[in-house]
Design a protein that fits this description.
The complex is a heterodimer of chains A (411) and B (334). Chain A is α/β, with parallel strands linked by helices and 411 residues long. Helices cover 31% and strands 20% of the residues of chain A. With 334 residues, chain B is of the alpha/beta class. In chain B, 28% of the residues lie in helices and 23% in strands. In chain B, strand 12, helix 8 and strand 13 form a beta-alpha-beta unit. In chain B, helix 2 packs across helix 4. The longest helix of chain B is centred in the first third of the chain and has 16 residues. The chains are: A alpha/beta (411), B alpha/beta (334). Chains A and B meet through helix 3, helix 4, helix 5, strand 6 and helix 6 of A and helix 3, helix 4, strand 7, helix 5 and strand 11 of B.
């Protein structure tokens, strides 16, 4: 096992009390519900991709995805859950994250508790259900993009800002950045933030038309990679200033040191082949964190398994980190559960902090043949014993959305 | 479109590094220019003094679809075209060239409550079974087309928190400017209803009338006055009052209320007048109709042109959540 950050002092350039701490985490994913089950699935290389059963798929080229077969009933309080599946995912993830952060015991926080949710699809699955069986108009109104966020805010009893963002499949990273801004500008004392998306016919139909889904396995960075598969889930974290966490006597899991979301300005679906937006997002996030590129110890890549994305990401990492890029382990967890869209980047953030905590990096599944265009140190086969304190988490989505987070595990 | 001759020309302090420079001479503070296309016409002068007497009984006021000479945009939705046209109008108003917004130092913050609805509804109801249509169901398609059209590669996000997204977008743009992540920020809002008129008719209990289609854009640059900007949000029964109680009333030059229905606006106005007797209060829907996330952007344009100098409060409501932005206008902080 290796650890340590050769090029970044442990006291850092950002005053510790000004840092944004992550004090709680919650997961609903196709490979496990709850942080511990999620981590066990990642490390063991569990694949949550199965035949989709919840809605008809007979007219699609590809009928598989990272579907959550049954939502395990967690202790989520006395209130009845909303019918909206995305809201249910969020509430289950929030129940775990807030319990971990001991938020329910901190009555003072409720006055300034904010909610920021990122989603590529919002409440479209609920709109789809309403269209199939028209009924309650109130239900239709909550099927908007911000419907699941409002349901979560209501369930949490949050009285601070309630924000919904969408940067397509980068939403789960952008939402964490926005949460950090709320904390830094004093608009909130604590924020429950993350991402969510659910599988439904709407999105499967769309990707079916685009022919972007693979009939093969998802193979990030492998020479044979042919495309992605979709998944569903929710990831939420509790963020607060380190000073607030200290006051409450809560030990953080890690810090969100820096963030940025930038545009490609190139194409409505495909990433910019030169990766200009992603490069800018990484550079801005590192600057925001006050961390030099050479200090990065691990990269959780977007790694969708599409020919263009994985090659572009590899090029950008080399451009930003230089020779250091070859020494940094890189992984993608999209082959474990499919691309969970709005949830993906938050789930990957949680993975980064767990990698530091447990001293292991989950493998990139289904990788066997090296691609000359993807020539970095990908973690493949099985989990690697390594404890990365400083991680980079990258994400990208339709309409040229790119996001990057700089994370640090708590020493 | 309103365009004041000579206005918007600013000088940058030559001693400061370009990316940290504060504009010191600007007629509109941090606002370099704006563009406004609505169901009433182009620019602020097209807005009537009172919408209800100007368009009695009308549920939706559609905005004309811009005719843009671009082969690249032939597949783009109406909302995308509106977004591009609003940015063009703002550049013209601020006397800026396209070259000034190209590249990584320009941010784009997009806000909307409705711009994705028509594309989503069309795809959902099966009328558009093509691969070309699906990407436009993403709410980021509108700002995406804008970034492509103008070559913007800087900070970029889409806020969809219903009618509160406009205030959040202004706050986020200011945050990006004051943390030097960009040199200028384009705040863009688009609201469109016409293509889903039946859907909005069914949901008439949620939104007032007239629903006015809008594309609104403000171009912001770093300015000393932004140091006085304050953002706040509160959810719940006393959300509005809990926000304004923290604000020193004697320094507030005006309050602009943006609500999704006339009834909500009147009730909020009563609460505010009880809290701050005599405060200069504007119900934004009386000037432009229900414009959702675009209302705060229009309110800021109205505040700048109305004067007098001082701080204005922009307040917006969406369901049980209130957002507030305290915006310093020229006179006090410059």
């Amino acid at each position: 096992m290796t650890s340590g950050t050769p090029n970044w002092p442990s006291d850092g350039s950002i005053a510790l009390s000004d840092r944004i701490a992550i004090t709680g985490m919650g997961v609903v994913s196709p490979i496990g519900q709850g942080v511990e089950a999620f981590w066990a699935g990642l490390i063991k290389g569990v694949c949550g991709i199965t035949a989709i059963e919840r809605f008809p798929t007979h007219d699609f080229r590809v009928r598989r995805g990272g579907e959550i077969k049954q939502l395990v009933e967690l202790r989520v309080g006395d209130q009845p859950l909303p019918a909206c599946r995305a809201s249910q995912f969020l509430i289950h993830a929030a129940a775990e994250a807030t319990r971990m952060a001991r938020l329910p015991d901190s009555a003072a926080l409720e006055r300034c508790l904010a909610v920021v949710v990122g989603s590529a699809l919002g409440g479209i699955a609920a709109a789809e259900r309403w269209y199939a069986q028209p009924g309650d108009l109130h239900a239709l109104a909550t099927a908007s993009y911000d419907g699941p966020t409002r349901n979560l805010a209501r369930w949490l009893g949050a009285t601070g800002p309630v924000l919904t963002i969408s940067t397509a499949c980068a939403s789960g990273a952008t939402s964490l950045g926005l949460a950090a801004d709320l904390l830094r500008t004093g608009a909130a004392t604590a924020v429950v933030a993350g991402g969510v998306d659910v599988l439904c016919r709407f999105v499967m139909r769309g990707f079916n038309h685009l022919r972007a889904l693979t009939r093969d396995e998802v193979r990030p960075f492998d020479r044979r990679r042919k495309g992605l598969l979709l998944g569903e889930g929710a990831g939420l974290v509790v963020l607060e200033r380190v000073a607030t966490a200290r006051q409450r006597g809560v030990t953080p899991f890690g810090y969100l040191l820096g963030h940025a979301s930038c545009a490609d300005g190139a194409h409505i679906t495909a990433p910019d082949p030169a990766g200009r937006g992603l490069e800018q997002a990484i550079r801005l996030a590192l600057a925001n964190a006050g961390v030099p590129g050479e200090a990065i110890e691990f990269i959780s890549a977007h790694g969708t398994g599409t020919p263009l994305n994985d090659q572009m990401e590899t090029q950008v990492f080399k451009k930003v980190l230089g020779q250091r890029a070859y020494a940094v382990p890189v992984n993608s967890i999209k082959a474990h559960m499919g691309h969970t869209m709005g949830a993906a980047a938050t789930l990957e953030t949680i993975m980064c902090l767990l990698a530091w905590r447990y001293g292991e990096i989950p493998p990139t599944l289904n990788y066997a043949e090296a691609d000359p265009a993807c020539d970095l140190d990908y973690v493949t086969g099985q989990a690697r014993a390594y404890r990365p304190r400083l991680s980079l988490n990258t994400a990208a989505g339709f309409a040229g959305c790119n996001a990057c987070l700089v994370l640090e595990g708590v020493a | 479109m309103q365009c004041l001759s000579g206005a918007g020309r600013c000088r940058v302090k030559e001693t400061a590094p370009a990316h940290l420079a504060y504009r010191t001479e600007s007629p509109w503070g941090a606002v370099r220019g704006w563009g406004l296309l609505t169901g009433w016409g182009r620019g602020l002068p097209s807005l009537p003094p009172d919408v209800h007497s100007a368009a009695p009984g009308q549920r939706i006021l559609p905005v004309a679809t811009p005719r843009l000479e671009s082969e690249r945009l032939r597949r783009a939705t109406r909302e995308c075209l509106l977004g591009v046209a609003a940015v063009e109008a703002a550049l013209e108003h601020g006397q800026m060239s396209h070259d000034e917004v190209v590249g990584p130092r320009t941010a784009l913050v997009f806000a909307s409550a409705s711009a994705y609805v028509a594309a989503n509804w069309a795809f959902l109801t099966g009328g558009t079974e093509t691969a070309l249509h699906f990407p436009y169901t993403a709410p980021s398609a509108v700002p995406g087309e804008v970034t492509i059209q103008f070559g913007i590669t800087g900070p970029y996000l889409t806020l969809l928190s219903g009618a509160n997204a406009g205030i959040e977008a202004l706050w986020q743009a200011v945050t990006l400017l004051t943390t030097a992540q960009c040199d200028r920020a384009i705040v863009l809002g688009v609201e469109a209803f016409q293509e889903c008129a039946e859907l909005y008719a069914a949901g008439r209990w949620l939104l007032g009338t007239p629903l006015t289609e809008v594309a609104a854009c403000l171009i912001l640059e770093r300015h000393a006055s932004l140091a006085g900007m304050r953002y706040g949000a509160a959810r719940g029964e006393n959300g509005l009052l809990s926000l304004v109680q923290q604000e020193p009333g004697q320094t507030v030059a005006g309050v602009y209320l943006c609500t999704p229905t006339t009834h909500d606006g009147q009730r909020a106005a009563q609460d505010l007048q009880a809290h701050w007797p005599g405060v200069a209060l504007s119900l934004v829907h009386e000037r432009c109709g229900i414009c959702l996330a675009c209302s705060p952007l229009i309110a800021l344009m109205l505040a700048i042109t109305a004067g007098p100098p001082g701080d204005v409060l922009l307040l917006s409501q969406w369901w049980d959540a209130w957002s507030m932005l305290r915006w310093p206008l020229l006179g006090k902080n410059t």
